[in-house]
Amino acid sequence: MLPEMEAKMGKIHGSKVEPGIWRLAPRKFILEAHVDGCGRVRETCEGTLYEARTRLEGLKKQIREKKPENGRSLTFEKVRDVLEYYKEHHFQFTPRYKASKSIYQTLLKELGELPISELSQDSFNTWLRTIETTKSVHKRTPRPATINNYIKIVKSAFNFCQERGSVATNPISKMKLRPELNIQRRIVSFEEFMALYREVPSHLQPWLEFIYKVPTRRGEVISLRNSEDISLSEQKLYLLDGESKTEEGRVFCIPSSMMDYFRNIPPESKRVFFRPEQTSQGMVYHPLRGNGVLQALTRAAERLKMKGINVHMFRRTAAVNMIRSGVDIKTVQVAGGWLSLEVLMDRYLPLGDEDVKKAVDKVDVPIDRLKLSA
Question: Which of 181-185, 211-215, 246-250 has the highest mean pLDDT?
Fold first, then answer.
């Protein structure tokens, strides 16, 4: 037996009769079926040695077909094994990991020792309901988006391991996500933007102007690299695969009014947006941090006595401004990197009475003109 398998599944205490069969009692055996490249499964069996051999061959056949009975684990026995394997081989290399690290740790702590055979959609849903009613240190209950992250991580982990033959099935494969009702109705007016622009530190002004004009996410825009991600000739910024929330590459168009800024980015700066600092060794260009820009914007809004201002609000503002300027909805979706028009329309563009009035005015024809045309 491989050392790592002993660590994962536990060492077998019994007398080994032959490969894959250990005797615990006169008519009780432990069977361990292993097929290279497909997986491994262990179970107890009562009966004669001949019956144990027959059962062992049946288990091997199930592994080859990847159809084990009763959703039995092929390699891993506990949820912890699945989560740790997923993190080690995939999850920690994705942009989502940093934002979901605390959720991952909670899953390990709360569900890590749970046997895979006991995990089901009902049991996981019951556990999630306790999470939904538990207040955080900020005295708030988790939002639906946070609960969905729990579901996504566990579901993705089991899918990842199932594809590699480490588990038989995904016990929560049919579990649906919670409806996310975080509809944003407020936008930043031009007057508010100008007031904030004058209030934030000068090194944040280009960043603030960019997110006001381009529907982007906070983490995406501050991660843009200097030189590698910029094409001044095409007036575009490139975000590579794996660097966005959706893990798909994106293209941002540089506003013409900001071309001078992008042409004059110091070559020593590793990022497009940065914080310069004069030191004894010379000028140092620090990359912007997500929490740093959030705190700076929050403080500026508080000094101006503006309520409800946050970084993500600028994403919706840019999208609404595009729509009001006559840009078609599909172009807005591509510009902002939304996966579906449904999310964009329902969550980001619940337009108000002002937009309805403008729409009516566009098709409003005076009665006199109608009479003349008749």
Answer: 211-215
CA distance 39 to 75: 6
Task: Give the per-residue SS3 of the chain.
Answer: CCHHHHHHHCCCCCEEEECCEEEEECCEEEEEEEECCCEEEEEEEECCHHHHHHHHHHHHHHHHHCCCHHHCCCCCCEHHHHHHHHHHHCHHHCHHHHHCHHHHHHHHHHHCCCEHHHCCHHHHHHHHHHHHCCCCCCCCCCCHHHHHHHHHHHHHHHHHHHHCCCCCCCCCCCCCCCCCCCCCCCCCCHHHHHHHHHHCCHHHHHHHHHHHHCCCCHHHHHCCECCCCEECCCCEEEECCCCCCCCCCEEEECCHHHHHHHHCCCCCCCECCEEEEEECCEEEEEECCHHHHHHHHHHHHHHCCCCCCCHHHHHHHHHHHHHHCCCCHHHHHHHHCCCCHHHHHHHHCCCCHHHHHHHHHHHCCCHHHHHHHC
Predicted TM-score (pTM) of the model is: 0.55
Per-residue buried b or exposed e for 334-346, using 16+ beta carbons within 10 Å of the residue's own CB: ebbbbeeeeebee
Per-residue model confidence as pLDDT tens digits over 298-356: 999 999 999 888 888 898 899 888 888 888 888 888 888 887 787 787 767 755 556 66
Q: Are strands 28-35 and 21-25 parallel, antiparallel or unpaired?
A: antiparallel
**Partners of 253 in beta bridges:** 236
What are the boundaries of each domain within the chain?
3-67, 79-163, 190-358
pLDDT tens column, 20-50: 888 888 888 888 887 655 667 777 888 888 8
Assign domain 190-358 to its CATH superfamily: Intergrase catalytic core (1.10.443.10)
The mean pLDDT of the chain is 80
